[in-house]
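Recap from last week: sequence in, structure out.
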Amino acid sequence: MDLHVHGRNLEISDKTQEHIESKLEPINRRLPGISDANVELAYEPTRSSNDRIMAQVTLHVGGTLLRAQQRAANTKSAINSVAKALDQQIKRYKSHTYRSERKRQTVRGANEESAAWYTNGTGPAKNSGANIEEADDDYVDGQVVRVKEFDMEPMSMEEAAARMQFLGHSFYMFLDSESDKLGVLYVRGDGNYGLIQPKDV
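Predicted structure tokens:
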């Protein structure tokens, strides 16, 4: 895992660097597919002194990004909090990966059974078929103070929903692989999802 640590409005000391490494090392062992880890620590003047230090960690796992962000009164507490939040992200990620693999195996088994039926001409077994698991799972006046840019890989709506859950966000912008349109997926008040897409001109 390549670790990159950046400071914004604060200096990253050797002690802070060592603390970050000690907190990310167990995470790297639990999820060995991490290729890059980007850590950003920032001092941001806020009304409360308890959340002036922001810690954000982004993990690159294959084609998936896992991101967590926490605030605290000091860098050590912020790092501890964001490491704990990442643990939850990884649990959701590994759970989703396991369900996806189970789903692929179930569908593959159903396809093989269907192919055997056509080859042998014996007809399908009663009640045969795949059992696909269902996934379980105030405005304030202000100004734009930060702009983020990122590469957008085409993906399905289902994959966008899964990534939104991984990140713990209430919305997610993605490039729809079916319509080739940009879309914003969001969580509705009733727990379902809504999708916003530009209208065809």
